[in-house]
Amino acid sequence: MVQHQAQRLDQAFDDLIDAWLIERQALLTQFMALPQMSVADDVIGQLHHFCEAMVDYSSRGHFNVYEQLLTHIAHYNAQFTNQTSVLLGKIHDTTDKIVIFDDEYGTVEKLSIQDLGHFSGRLSRLGEVLTDRFNHEDQLMEFFQETLA
Fold first, then answer.
1. Which of 94, 112, 93, 90 has its CA nearest to residue 54?
2. What does the angle CA 13 – CA 4 – CA 78 come to, to the nearest 5 degrees?
């Protein structure tokens, strides 16, 4: 019975990771669509939706995924503990930048022509932040995979 419980927990964790990675893909799709939108599109609505999805994705990582990954890694291969702590710190840095972007654009009511130039640069920098975050998350997943080998 204990083995059956462990298998159910493993499956639940696999399902959590799968859902989280699907959420990441959806976030990337939304991000890629933003600069392609015309002024006739509901840019503000899509921006709000994107910011909400980005914050939800980040929160899910911090409060559901990372904790379980780190616990598993520490339990099965403690040699990675220092490296995972460094990665988690880098992920936290990206979270701070995500929150700043959300604070600036998550509830914006309108964008002027001047704002559009600023927004384009901020969106480009956010793309770099998201790339860094996803790379750090992938490294964390690699450490997890190493414990399974």
1. 94
2. 50
Q: For residue 38, what is the domain's CATH number?
A: 1.20.120.1370
Burial class (CB in 10 A: 0-12, 13-18, 19+), 3: exposed
Rounded to two decimals, the pTM is: 0.88
Alpha-carbon gap, residue 20 to 61, rounded angstroms: 8
Report the alpha-carbon distance of residue 96 to residue 109 in Å, rounded.
23
Q: Which two tokens stand for residue 47?
A: 């921006």
Residue 107 DSSP label:
T
Model pLDDT for residues 93-143, shown as the tens digit of each residue: 999 999 999 999 999 988 777 777 788 899 999 999 999 999 999 999 998
Say how many domains are in the chain. 1
Q: Is 66 helix (H, G, I), strand (E, B) or coil?
A: helix
**Distance between CA atoms of residues 19 and 23, nearest Å:** 6
